[in-house]
Amino acid sequence: MRLPALAQPLTRLGRGLVPAALVLLLDQLTKWVMVSLVMVPPRIIEVTPFFNLVMAWNTGVSFSLFTGAGPWLLTGLSLGIAGGLMLWLARADGKRLRLALSLIIGGAIGNAIDRIRFGAVADFLDVHAMGYHWPAFNVADSAITIGAVLLVWDSLFPARKG
Q: In angstroms, rounded to a whole number, what is the distance separating the alpha carbons of residues 112 and 116?
C-alpha cells in the first residue's frame, strides 16, 4: 500500500482518537478520585433524592453479566473490540459515526484498565427513580452507552453528504 493511501485513514484514526483519549482521561481521573479519596472508607453519599455516589466493583460487564468469566478474558475481549473499532474508525466517514466509535473505544479501554489494575471495574454512579434502581456505573460505561446510541442513530439516520 502506498503512503498517500495510508495518510487519510491514519489522519482519521488520529483525529478520531482524541475524544477516546478524553473519555479515558476523565474516566480514570474520576475513578482515582472515587477509589483513593472519596470512598475511603466505602460508603453511600446521597447527592440528590435520585442520585448517590457508591463504591461497587463489577467483575462482569454491563449489568454484572459474565461475572464468572474472569478479568483476563473480559480484558482481552474489551481490547479486541476496541482494536476492531479502531480499524473501523480509520475508515469511517461522518463525524457522528467517528464520535460514536471513539466514545466506545475510550470507554472500553478505561474499563479494561480497571480489570488489569483491580480485577474488576470501579463503578460509583448510582441512579434510582420511581422505584427503579439502575446498576452502578462509571464514566466509561456512560461513554459506551452514548456511543452505542449514536451508532444506532447514525445507522438509522445517516448524515446527508454534500
A: 6
Beta strands at 45-48 and 51-58: parallel, antiparallel or unpaired: antiparallel
28: phi then psi, degrees, rounded to nearest 5: -70, -35
Omega into 4 within 30° of 0, i.e. cis? no
Q: Which residues are catalytic?
A: 123, 141
C-alpha cell at 94: 461522518
Query: If you average pLDDT over residues 72-99, what whole number do you get?
Result: 93
Amino acid at 119: G
Going by C-beta distance under 8 Å and a sequence separation of 6 or more, which residues neighbour residue 65? none
150: pLDDT strictly greater than 80: yes
Output the pLDDT for position 27: 99
Q: What percent of the chain has pLDDT over 70?
A: 89
